[in-house]
Design a protein that fits this description.
By secondary structure, the protein is α/β, with parallel strands linked by helices. Helices cover 39% and strands 20% of the residues. The chain is built from nine helices and eleven strands. The strands form two sheets. Strands 1, 2, 6, 7, 8, 9, 10 and 11 form an eight-stranded mixed β-sheet that branches. Strands 3-5-4 form a three-stranded parallel β-sheet, sandwiched between helices. Helix 6 packs across helix 7. The chain starts with a strand and ends with a strand.
Length: 236
Amino acid sequence: MPKVTIGCFHEHLPPVARKSTVVAIDVIRATTTAITAVATGKRVYPAGSIEAAVRLAADLDRPILAGELGGVQPYGFDMQNSPCEMEELGDASRPIILLSTSGTRLMMEAASRGACRAACLRNAGAQAAQLAREGADAVILGADSRGEFREEDRLCAARIARPLLEAGHSAGDRLTAEIIERWGDAPDDALLQSRSARYLRETAQEHDLEFVLEHIDDLAATFSLSDDELRMDQTG
């Protein structure tokens, strides 16, 4: 029987079985921003560090640097780690390098270990359906935010994991079962209690919070990391 395990990425990726699929989640905001960019036809390259972003920029043609570290847009970057701004960005010809405090680092470290998918509340249902079809072990990891496994990532993880239990997966540990029980049928606005949501409100970035709440399960697609680029999976 395949297992689904939910956890939080802190400094390093926990041990993951070779054939497991890792699903990286950072609802506020890295995976939401990255998925939004790819869904609107842009090429997206997550960067695990500022140094990696600089190296990528040297290899790509006129890249747009998007991101934040500690919530602050780095010097020399073109835009924030913002799904709202990303959707409004009209130019799809230039590649996007995306950097975040922990979400992009989670994506890149997971990709270095094997199969890695990125998910957010925009495609939680589609991601759950794909994992159920594949029937393999899945490890769903939320990005650390100031040492915490934030509510928005627990909500998204539970929405992916709960259908897997119904499809025949078993919960990999007690934490997984507890998160699914607590968050599996929680309402969308349950994420508003998180510190991430409060931070966006306090820093006049409510537009990104509104974007997350207005785009729930509106994408019937999944997204994988391959050769340092996040791509929409081909179906059919």
